[in-house]
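Not sure how to ask, but would you mind making up any protein sequence you like and the tokens describing how it folds?
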Amino acid sequence: MACRVAGTGRTYPVAMARSPLTLAALASSAVPELDLVGVSRHGSAGRGDYDAAILTGRDGRTWVIRVPRSERAEQEQSADLVALRALSQGVRARLPFAVTQFAGQAPVDGTRAIVSEFVPGAAVTLGAIDVELADSIGQAIAAIHALPTSLVTDAGLPTHSASEAHRGAISLVGRALETGLVPAALARRWQQACDDAGLWQYTPTVINGGLAASSFLASAGAVTGILGWQGLAVGDPARDLSWVLGARSEAIADSAFAAYTRARGGVDRRLRQRALLLSELDVARWLMHGTETRSTEIVDDAVQMLSRLVDDVLGEAADPIGPHTLPVLAVDEVEALLDRTERVS
């Protein structure tokens, strides 16, 4: 069974997942020099955005093959591939964690299968992060932000100035307020943040652009790899740290930010404040997605999240966002929002 995506002429399987053996055959086509001795399914069969399998070579090396099951997944995979090619061996040597290597590709059913090196490590969830792992996460993010911006510009990837980010936040807040659904306390809070010119005085850095807990692989309390580079750009470093504020305790966020600051120095004194604002504006962005797609379900969900935000910040809503504000979303709420956003973005 398959579905055709309107306007693309492409068909994506939606019911029957490709078997591991089929994926292994595709991998051999994509990378003829592979000498495979084992294959196993990666992820849940028939669920998620990809059909994927883990491949074991005779030389002991491990690979992963992914075939997108949706147009969004295909676009994400293509963007990820462009970013991975921009990360040269010299750049990778500066990172304290592994980044997958592209190995080859093969056409299949109007899309393409991508084979890349498998990065070891256990998948991270927001609720399972402890202080030790948070420290390693802060260091890992700092290493990304220390990379030369030329790697992004030379690859033709996006570059966003601080003034562009400021204007974007003002525009998002304005559009959200026009819905009439943003509580007055949040409206004042966000407008004050947008009016605070000092909040937006930062130097753009290389950013991953799409980090969440699920982006990280870890072992023994340390980050071993980061997955998903499709958002690679030059932009606001606070974007890569905003999700940390949804951790189950402030100590975890404190650990991540402290490790980041030790590695990068105190050059961006308003980093945590801006990260907090961006985490809150993700809810505004979710609201706008619901209104633009005319989804009552999404709008209702966003309104409930806005109400919970008000409850969390009510005591300080009259003041600008401060560096010691408590996390505005609980861990389960952040994970749910990220999951919903990934499904519709």
User: Anything to note?
Assistant: The domain at 123-344 is CATH 3.90.1200.10 (Aminoglycoside 3'-phosphotransferase; Chain: A, domain 2). The mean pLDDT is 88. The first strand starts at residue 2 and ends at 5. Residues 271-292 form the longest helix (22 residues).
